[in-house]
Amino acid sequence: MRLTKSNYYGKNANMQYLSVSQYKDFIGTIGKKGCEYKALAKLKGDYIQEPSKELLLGSYVDSAWDGTLDKLKEKHPEMFLKTGGLKADFLKAQQAFERTQRDNLFCLYMNGQKQKIMTANFLGVDWKIRMDSYHPQKCIVDLKYIKDIHERFWVKDLGYYVNFIEYWGYDLQGAIYQKIVELNTGYKLPFYICAVDRKATPEIEIIQVPQLFLDQALLGIESNIKRIVALKNEVVNPSRCLQCDYCLENKVIETPILSTSLIEI
Fold first, then answer.
1. Could you count the other beta carbons within 10 Å of the beta carbon of residue 130?
2. How many domains does the chain have?
3. What is the pTM of this model?
4. Residue 44, domain extent
5. Is residue 137 in some structural domain?
6. By the 8 A CB rule, do 39 and 26 touch?
7. CA 188, CA 140: separation in Å to the nearest integer?
8. Half-sphere exposure of residue 43: CA atoms within 13 angstroms, side-chain side
9. SS3 of 198, please?
10. Looking at the predicted structure, is the pLDDT value of residue 16 above 70?
């Protein structure tokens, strides 16, 4: 299947190819638990997930940079007030975009090949990637519009704080992007995140993810691939996280529980 910008997110493409977002849906990240049941339902079209406000805000800044903002506005009239102006959060996103455009280095990194699609077979699976800004033989760049560039997240199981890149699995994203580009071109390129945050006065930063972190992010993928392929091929039944909206919507009570177990569930 030849991928294009119009069919990249389609059902057929998602069934044939594995993507970073798909992988996260199945396996999860430090900050968000995966759910096989919900991930498989999304792939099959049994569950349509409406974009959250945070996701839509990120799409606003992405679309502003790749020149497709008018299409996004047509698709999502909920971004506008009845008077026709942008709602406060989206006006703020517009201002954040304008702030990024005033920085020469930010613009240099973001002005590569926009939304460049590549595919490759890695670990016996066909992957697809779509890069925000691709500079051939130089670097890979991803744009993020986030709450706070310096926000710290306490991870109880690890016993220490992590940054937004580790928490949301953007190091995994960079690792897959880097590997697919390398398989296509022979060049192992550094991965950067061009970040702008949602603070009253937006802060901007260009962040390189260290190669060690990218290498570590790839280590856990191989052990999960066979399970994901088996799920997509319906060879095994998906497990349920019992916490996401799809699991709760389809929950069936099988037996009463004790009040003492409420905190543990």
1. 18
2. 1
3. 0.93
4. 11-49+103-250
5. yes
6. yes
7. 10
8. 26
9. coil
10. yes
In a domain, 155, yes or no: yes
Task: Assess whether pLDDT exceeds 70 at residue 110.
Answer: yes
Cα–Cα dist 140/60, whole Å: 21
The percentage of residues in the chain with a pLDDT greater than 70, rounded to a whole number, is 99
For residue 233 the two structure tokens come to 């091929």
At residue 263 the predicted structure's pLDDT band, cuts being 50, 70 and 90, is confident
Contacts of 81 (CB under 8 A, 6+ apart): 87
The radius of gyration of the chain from alpha carbons, rounded to an integer in Å, stands at 20
Evaluate whether residue 154 is within a structural domain: yes
Query: Which CATH number do you get for residue 164?
Result: 3.90.320.10
Residues whose CB is less than 8 angstroms from the CB of residue 213 and which lie 6 or more positions away in sequence, other chains included = 166, 171
Specify the residue for token string 């989206």. Answer: 90
Tokens linked to 148:
């706070």
In whole angstroms, give the CA distance from residue 164 to residue 193: 11
Q: Which helix (H) or strand (E) holds 132?
A: strand 125-135
Supply 96's token pair. 């954040």
CA dihedral 150, 156, 160, 164 (to 10 degrees): -30
Q: 17-26, 45-54, 112-121, 182-191: which range is least confident on average?
A: 45-54
Amino acid identity of 199?
Answer: K
Contact between residue 100 and residue 115 where contact means Cβ atoms under 8 Å apart: no
- pLDDT tens track for 147-200: 999 999 999 989 999 999 999 999 999 999 999 999 999 999 999 999 999 999
Whether the pLDDT of residue 265 is over 70: the answer is: no
Beta bridge partners of 128: 119
